[in-house]
Amino acid sequence: MDVSSLLDGLNDKQREAVGAPQSSMLILAGAGSGKTRVLTHRIAWLMQVEQQSPYAILAVTFTNKAAAEMRIRVEKVAGGNMGRMWIGTFHGLAHRLLRTHYKDANLPQSFQILDSDDQLRLIKRILKSLNLDEKQYPPRQAQGYINGKKDLGLRPSHIDAGGFPIEQNLLAIYKVYQESCDRAGLVDFAEILLRAHELWLNKPHILEHYQDRFKHILVDEFQDTNAIQYAWIRVLAGVKANVMIVGDDDQSIYGWRGAQVENLHKFLADFPAAQTIRLEQNYRSTGHILKASNALIANNAERLGKKLWTEDKDGEPIGLYCAFNEMDEARFIIGCISEWLDQGKKLEDCAILYRSNAQSRVLEEALLHKGLSYRIYGGQRFFERQEIKDAMGYLRLMNNKDDDAAFERVVNTPARGIGGRTLDILRQTARQHELTLWQAALRLLEEKVFSGRAANAVRGFMDLIVTMSQDAGTRSLHLMTDHVISHSGLKVMYEAEKGEKARARIENLEELVIAARSFVMPEEGEDMGELNAFLSHAALEAGEGQADDFTDAVQLMTLHSAKGLEFPMVFMAGVEEGLFPSQRAIEEGDRLDEERRLCYVGMTRAMQKLYICYAESRRLYGREDYARPSRFIGEIPKEHVQEIRLKTQVSRPSVSTPSRKANIANDSGFKLGQKVMHPKFGEGLITNYEGCGAQSRVEVNFFDVGSKWLMLAYARLESC
Ligand code: ATP
Ligand code: MG
603 C-alpha to center of ligand 1: Å? Predict the structure, then answer.
């Protein structure tokens, strides 16, 4: 592509940024204003016009999906070979660095990533070993403490707990936790970043090498970097590199994970020569969608403030649908998608976004029922499923016997008679002698501490792992995985479970073998071994178990994972008080602004059509709640919204009906004017109805809460 076409399709401000002389820059702009486009064109510009080698460029994005997309976009505009360019997420790049320099980072070559689930298990074990009560020290809180400190770059030795017993104990947990991780060769997500940062600080020759190499550093979604990520970039940049950061303070949605919007200010202080460029034209969304989003975000205080306008037409107003419950919501969404398909459009243009991962199940079921392909990004990913983690646990232990988290996971899965007492002795010995669980087991067997039965069970387990790892050398990765699934007893265990869920688990295990077969060794993994590389891939990438990349599929994801993406048609599901904003955000007040930013992110993903849905009642996390529409809906000016009415047949009683007290639905037994009792709203009178059969709705005038429409099939009304 020639130079002029690199600037084609850009407005003046965007051109200024793309074609700027080599320097540092801050691009501060609202959603859909072309920040990511500028960043990718800038990379192409650096290569083609400034003759910079891809080798000298490092680009950081926020999710694996965004990184993959950026690679494609750059390849398209630059058209060249960019194999040696580093494009990835902070975690992905830091992990790559640690793999390459594992010795300098003080890690064993076989080090593995501890995901947050396993991290929590390990913390629970540590609480027990320290005799700390889980009620007083909730494991999740301890986990938050450890990760929070790491995000700030703090090791236990840097922390002064002062005279506060709680703080002292949390610190003690952190210390013991870190020691066990180090012994077992495990790094958690925060550790990946912290260690990569320490690598810069402790090994100047390595830092120098990368400082010489990376002359250009570009960071997308900068508003969501945390302290350690920013420090990593700043140190790497040194005094020579040109750093371009792009971001939008209104889209900062990871404050709860330590992201700091203040990094935007820090950047300007640390790179005083950096020029700030603002983009104001939105190219993504129609007028209605953009104006509604702008109005919503205006409710937040403390914004840097941005103007955002579009030349686009107003388009269709935002569709607002009030569902009876979550199933009705799913039905409505699927109905709209079917209509979209009927117009000859694609499934992949539709995205369903939700606040909580747990919401996806009902949507998935409805899609499956209708035979529509879908793909889930983030969240309950394939590699996070229980059965997959069990199988991976075996593989991890075969790869590294000292992996305590894996040991804990599979030692008695499936049950092989290794009871709680035996495990307690193992853990105690491990702690006392600073051994890993595997080493402790070897020692206890040698010293004949266990009873005959327990000893046999432990020995049996260890022999199994040893035999499987010996065999491993002779098999390819997927045959080894298959072998492990059968010989570990996992397959038999899940086969013995009955029902749909168990069947799905077996299918997932089969899918794992397929995943192993299609695994391609990454560039940096040459000498780390295939199994090791596969395990890291599983922990980092979390592949998707649904439709493959070539199938046209509806996209499902949490609002958080939708950042940076765009879709012609977007559904936001479950926009209800207590769910979105979440109950916690409502209770803690100061997190409301962040929820509103999340809502802004969600709405601004839509290009042509946006639907916002809420349900009057919702069954989630095993309980049913009656909900009110989210306050965010109320913050959208009415002129941008169109309420969607139910499309069921209205069958009112005909004039010839002898009495108005007709049965509402044939067999419901309810009549107009009848007094009814509702479990939550109390007593009231039926005043109206519409729909028929499963769709029947009644209007009840409740004595306490006034009039409400309820769906008969779900309202649990009783006559009284
Ligand atoms: P977000 O804040 O959501 O990450 P963004 O600022 O990164 O958004 P992009 O994703 O880069 O925005 O761009 C939004 C859309 O607008 C994309 O489809 C992009 O191709 C298009 N776009 C950007 N700039 C222009 C332009 N000058 N002319 C036409 N289309 C443009
Ligand atoms: Mg972007």
Answer: 15
Asked if residue 255 belongs to a known ligand binding site, the reply is no
Q: Is the CB of 9 under 6 A from ligand 1?
A: yes
- Residues 412 and 516 occupy one common structural domain: yes
CA-nearest residue, atom 21 of ligand 1: 283
Give the span between the Cα atoms of 244 and 214, in whole angstroms: 13
CB of 248 closer than 6 angstroms to any ligand 1 atom = yes
Q: How many structural domains does the chain have? A: 5
Q: Taking the model in full, what pTM does it have?
A: 0.75
- Check which CATH number belongs to the domain holding 617 and give it: 3.40.50.300
The answer as to whether 13 is a domain residue is yes
Q: 418 and 492 share a domain?
A: yes
292-344 pLDDT per residue, tens? 999 999 999 878 878 789 998 999 999 999 998 888 999 999 999 999 999 99
Question: Would the annotation count 35 as a binding residue?
Answer: yes
Reference 373, options 504, 552, 545; nearest CA is 552
**Angle at CA of residue 554, ends 75 and 345, nearest 5°:** 85
| pLDDT, tens only, 8-47 | 889 999 999 999 999 999 999 999 999 999 999 999 899 9
Please tell me whether residue 288 adopts helix, strand or coil conformation. helix
Same domain, 376 and 387: no
Work out the angle between the directed axes of helices 437-446 and 452-472 (0-180°, nearest 10): 130
Which residue among 614, 629, 644 closes a domain?
Answer: 644
In a domain, 420, yes or no: yes
Domain enclosing residue 83, as ranges: 3-100+194-281
Residue 468 is predicted with a pLDDT of: 93
- 518 and 564 assigned to the same domain: no
Q: Are residues 205 and 236 in the same domain?
A: yes
Question: Going by C-beta distance under 8 Å and a sequence separation of 6 or more, which residues neighbour residue 426?
Answer: 437, 440, 441, 444, 458
Compute how many other C-beta atoms are within 10 angstroms of the C-beta atom of residue 514.
12
Residue 387 sits in the same domain as residue 377 = no
Residues 15 and 28 in one domain: yes
Quote the pLDDT of residue 647: 43
Would residue 189 count as lying in a domain? no
Does the predicted interface ipTM exceed a cut of 0.95? yes
CATH number, domain containing residue 488: 1.10.486.10
Catalytic (active site) residue 364:
no
pLDDT score, position 569: 98
DSSP 538-587: HHHH---SSS-TTS--EEEEETGGGTT--EEEEEEE--BTBBTTBHHHHH
Query: Over 90: is that where the pLDDT of 242 sits?
Result: yes
Whether residue 570 contacts residue 601, with contact meaning beta carbons closer than 8 Å, is answered with: no
Task: State pLDDT tens for residues 632-653.
Answer: 999 999 999 999 865 443 333 3
| 36 touches ligand 1 (CB under 6 Å) | yes
Are 205 and 234 in a shared domain? yes
Q: Cβ contacts of residue 158 below 8 Å, gap of 6+? A: none
User: Which position among 112, 211, 225, 251 bears the catalytic label?
Assistant: 251
Tell me, what CATH number does 682's domain have?
Answer: 2.40.10
What is the C-alpha to C-alpha distance for residues 96 and 88, in angstroms, rounded to an integer? 10
Dmax of the chain from CA atoms? Answer: 94
CA of 236 to the centre of ligand 1 (A): 29
Ligand nearest to the CA of 605: 1
Residue 107 in domain:
no
Tens digit of pLDDT for each residue in 519-552? Answer: 777 766 666 788 888 888 777 654 333 455 567 8
| Closest C-alpha to 440, from 455, 451, 425, 453 | 425
Identify the domain boundary among 255, 281, 307: 281
CATH number at residue 146: 1.10.10.160
| Cβ of 40 below 6 Å from ligand 1 | no
Helix (H/G/I), strand (E/B), else coil: 216: strand
